[in-house]
């Protein structure tokens, strides 16, 4: 593999890492926003129940259902986004695992004695 090919591989890897970080950040912000909306919906529901009880009344079913549905929707959206974030994180681990066999495959085609004992190829990902 030539120097320019190695440079291109590293640039592509850096680009993927940057895109993954951007995607994760975007998802984290969206999760935060949706959780804030869920908190506001829970607060509105709590206030409605409090006001109704303060008047010695029950909260009417339509208001309860509307407020509870809003809260359920926001919680469901937060759960969906959490699952999407987990997939993005799992996707970050998958390319590192997919890159690991590539140096071994190229070493398998090399002569076993001299080149196999040489320094590890620069493409191998760091172990964490």
Rg calc: 26 Å
Helix percentage: over 70%
The computed structural class is mainly alpha
The poorly predicted ranges are: 96-126
Binned strand content: under 5%
> If you average the pLDDT, what whole number results?
79
Quickly list its features.
rod-shaped, mainly alpha, 128 residues
What's the helix and strand layout?
Blueprint: H1 3-54, H2 61-99, H3 101-108
Would you kindly provide a written description of the structure presented here, covering whatever features stand out?
The chain is an all-alpha fold. The chain has a domain at 11-95. It is 77% helix and 0% strand. It contains three helices and no strands. The protein has helices spanning 3-54, 61-99, 101-108. Helix 1 (3-54) runs antiparallel to helix 2 (61-99). It starts with a helix and ends in a 20-residue tail after the last helix.
Explain briefly what this protein structure is.
The chain has 128 residues and is mostly helical. It has helices at 3-54, 61-99, 101-108.
